[in-house]
Amino acid sequence: MTPLPSGVLEHIVDSHCHPTDAPSISAASMQQLQITVCAMSTHSKDQSLVRELAQTYPSKIIPCFGHHPWFSHFITTNAGVAKHEHYHRLFQPTEELYPAFEDLLPHLPEPVLLDDILVDLRSNFASCSSPPMLGEVGIDAIFKVPYDYHATPRRISPFMIPLEHQLTVLEAQIDIAVEFGASVSFHSVKCPQATLELFDRLKRKHEENWNNIRFDIHSCSMSPETLVQLQRKHANVWMSVSTTINGRSRNLRPLIAACAVDKLLIESDYDAIEQSTPKCLEILDIVAEVKGWHIETDWDDGDENGAVHRLEANWKVFSATQTRTTE
Ligand SMILES: [Zn+2]
């Protein structure tokens, strides 16, 4: 891995990580951080952690507010619904799976109303001086709800969150991103067709405001063909890759090769903040090699064709806030 001087590091952006998930987040670890990171939130409890982190380190942290599809079952669209009824409607346990359902229920929180989530999201967006992002949000076709998310090993229940429910939660959050012209860190796992259909539907729905927001398909696990199709149809789709998630995938290099040169970003997708920089440098090496870019060792000598210059330029276009056209 190429060691880089701080003059180059300060131009690197980790477009997706979860620093508030790890205990190592501290004044000392933040002090050492020389790159900029996009700190994701994922459920009701970590939105304020991300907000506070960004308020403390505004030059290093880009706050990302949103509810992850893995936690979307905590959210209900029915005001006043009882906990049991909410999860029962969502998971529709068969008689055979009923014991598993009963087992899972005590581990699940009281559902929170989607409208309340949206009020909170809007106020977090409005509270930021620098433009926040929406993230991590998205859809996932293979995730099964664990009994206890934080337990190791994680015991997995047989229940999946219906895609339709994930889409309801997602689209309501995207509406707010459109309202604020915010960029989106997007999780799409094993649902290429649903993702393509969603983007087509959103484009029709948001009309001229559609191009005001940008999507980063993070730790992209799509086939290169699907990515190309998505980027050809939608000029507002970027892609980022990480060694954490994509490292062992045989699709990684073909995916980087297929991605539009100006729509490529890098990320660590890591929780521990001290891993953000080394993980970004790992994927930077791979991206540079596949795209045939050199990596700058001195920012001032670097030209605009260097990998870090190019990725920074991509990031600047991706993250620029747009003004909404009101009808
Ligand atoms: Zn993530």
From TrEMBL:
GO MF terms, alphabetically ordered: hydrolase activity, acting on ester bonds
Pfam families for the chain: TatD_DNase
Signal peptide feature range: none
Superkingdom classification of source: Eukaryota
Entry-linked InterPro entries: Metal_Hydrolase (IPR032466), Metallo-hydrolase/TatD-type (IPR053044), TatD-like (IPR001130)
Protein name: TatD DNase family Scn1
UniProt source species: Mycena indigotica
